[in-house]
Each structure stands twice: as structure tokens, then as C-alpha cells.
Amino acid sequence: MGEVPPHMYASVIRRERFGEPAQAFATEVVATPSPGRGQVLVRVMAAGINYNNVWAALGHPVDVISLRQKQGQPEDFHIGGSEGSGIVWAVGEGVTTVSVGDHVVLAGAQWDETADDIRAGTDHPASKSMRAWGYETNYGTFAQFCLVSDFQCHPKPARLTWAEAASFMLTGPTAYRQLFGWRGNEVRPGDVVLIWGGAGGVGSMAIQMTKAVGAIPIAVASSAQRAEFCRRLGAVGVIDRTEFDHWGRLPDVTDAVAMGEFLQGARKFGKAIWDILGERRFPNVVLEHTGQDTLPTSMYVCDNGGMVVICGGTTGYNGDVDLRHLWMRSKRLQGSHGANLREYREVISLINAGLVQPCLSRCGDFDQIGELHQLMYDNVHPSGNMAVRVGAVDGDGTGRL
């Protein structure tokens, strides 16, 4: 315990392998990083799989390796992994919040606590120093050891296996901040919440959290199997998006035919919400991450004074909005990224209380990291969250080595 080997195994992305994830990841031996001031070296037990390292594998929309090298960092490789579970193995100068041997889960948001804007009171995720660890920064959880800031370490829920504990610290806090982090539009008991991709990682967390506070979750899914998964989590109803064909960018308002087709589809979608509720009500909050294809519909069906809150753009980054719906109905379009320290701890409290389950649907081995990202890239991944074992062999549910 605490002896740091000079080298470690890691699942590495390099520029010459950029492309689909199945080919981009390869196991290599690299130097083990050393913790500096305020940093912690963690022996990784398990790592979560998320879409950000699909982007890293593709080298698009950002070549994260070249970007970091332009910032003066020497490594010509990327070790991804933005969440995980493990054992504190070594600590740098000034670390007092964790000790060698602690069992921890790892948060994916990394910032500079000495940054001017944070010192002035800016919320951590909105700081100019905010980075997605394991994507915008190196030495994530796809290796025997990862390097984090001390505040990224949180106590591991004792009831979870290592793999379960590795799978919720990105999707869970992301959904939590979307639902409860925006003053004036926090989800309250009785609110209707529309959740795109309800069977996905963020969606599965959002359904459970919405239900836990007495609100009404309605999910959107793409198959009967995924719809049933959403219902088991607590969705009061599920809309099958494959029954609609009006997706895509918003037509120009001067194109009467195209705009008419969009409105017909959006109204049909809105009626599906009414049919589930049994009354003419619209969502108080729409939880978005799909972006380009769905944002026009989300803004259309959102209730007066309601909020569309978005954390991604998996169908594209050009989000079209009919501004008349935005200002005349006092709606809100809110970007949301990551979570702050308090929000991470509150999600862990929900997990500890059994009110939210991590929804680990598949756990692979270390050499399957590329394969599981490929499933996500091809949109054929199972419902819920995925993880890989790194240093752990789970089986008894206790999270022990």
C-alpha cells in the first residue's frame, strides 16, 4: 500500500489511431504520474464509460492531445476516463481531506481553487478554470493509476461494488444539477419533467431523481425495450421518438410549408405528453442533451415560464430556437455542465439512501474499453450506465479487492 511503481498499464489514445473507438484505444505501458501539491494518486478499481471519450477517440470536435500540447503539456497521448472508483495510493503536499487507503469515488469536474473567479464566488462549474477531467485533462481512470485534485475524491458508498460505484459520478451529478441547480426553475413536487434519452446514463439518473422529489417524469426513448426500462425506473409514461419524423433544424419562418410540417410534428409530440398525463399540461422542465434534432421541439412544448436545460449535443451543435416562444412565453434555455462540490455530495447521499440506483447495465474488462465506447458511438449500448473493471474483481457486492 502506498508504494508507487514507476510504470503502469493504461488504455491509451494516440493521434495516429484517431477514429472509431474500437481502433483508437490500445493498452500500453506508460510512466506513472506523480501527485503534486493538492493532488492525489488513486489506484483505479473500476472506471465508468461516457461519451466524452468517444469524442476523444475520434479526435473530433477537438483533438485533445494537440490542445494540451499547445498549453505546454508534454504528453503525446491521452488517458481518458472521467469517473471511477478506487483506493487512495499516494497524496501530494497539502492534501488533508483524504489519506492513503481511503476508498473513494471520483468526480469528473476539475477546477483551480485558486482561480480569481472562484475566489470571487463563481460557482465551480462556471469557472473559466473548469475542465472535464479525463477528457480535457489527462490521466483519467482508464489506467492502473489516475491523477486527481483532492476535492475530486468522495467517500465510496459502502453498499456498492467497485463497478457500481464507478458508474454514476458523471451522469448522476450532471442530471442532478440540471434538475435542481437553476434557481427559479428547480424541479418541485408535482412538476412535469420531460427527459430525452430516458434509458441513457443521464436519463436513467434523472428519472429516479425526479420521482424521488415527487415530480412527474416522462421519458423519451427509441424502442419498446428501452421504454420498459424507463418505466421500471419510475417514468409515468414514455414517448417513442421513432413515431415522429419532424426532427432536425428549425425551418425558416418564411418557408410556410416546412414550418407547417414542423408544427404538425411538434403538436403531435405535445399531444403525446397530454395523453400520458390525462390533461393538457406541458413540462415545467425539459432535460436535454440531444441538441440539434430535438431542441426546437423541446422549446415548443416547454411550459410558460419553464426551462429547457441542456448538457450536450449528441445530434449536433446548432440549436435553433423560435425566439417568439422564448420571450413571449418567458421560457428559459439554460446550459448546464458538470456539478459543484455540494451537488456531488448530495447525489452520493441519494445513492447511500437507496433512493437512486447507479443503473449499471454492463461491466466489462480492461481490454474492452474501446469496445464499450464503440457500442456507445453506434448507439447500440445497453440502457443505463456502463463500466469496466481495472483493479477489482467484483462478485460479492461489497466492493472489496
From TrEMBL:
The Enoyl reductase (ER) domain, residue ranges: 19-388
Keyword NADP: yes
Top-rank lineage group of the source organism: Bacteria
UniProt enzyme class: oxidoreductase
Keywords: Acetylation, Cytoplasm, NADP, Oxidoreductase, RNA-binding
Stretches assigned to coiled coil: none
Compartments in which it is found: Cytoplasm
Xref: InterPro entries: ADH-like_C (IPR013149), ADH-like_N (IPR013154), Crot_CoA_red (IPR010085), ER (IPR020843), GroES-like_sf (IPR011032), NAD(P)-bd_dom_sf (IPR036291), Quin_OxRdtase/zeta-crystal_CS (IPR002364), Zinc-ADH_QOR/CCCR (IPR051603)
Molecular function per GO: crotonyl-CoA reductase activity; RNA binding; zinc ion binding
A Gene Ontology cellular-component term: cytoplasm
Oxidoreductase in keyword set: yes
Principal location class: cytoplasm
Listed EC numbers: 1.3.1.85
Subunit (UniProt): Homotetramer.
Protein name according to UniProt: Crotonyl-CoA carboxylase/reductase
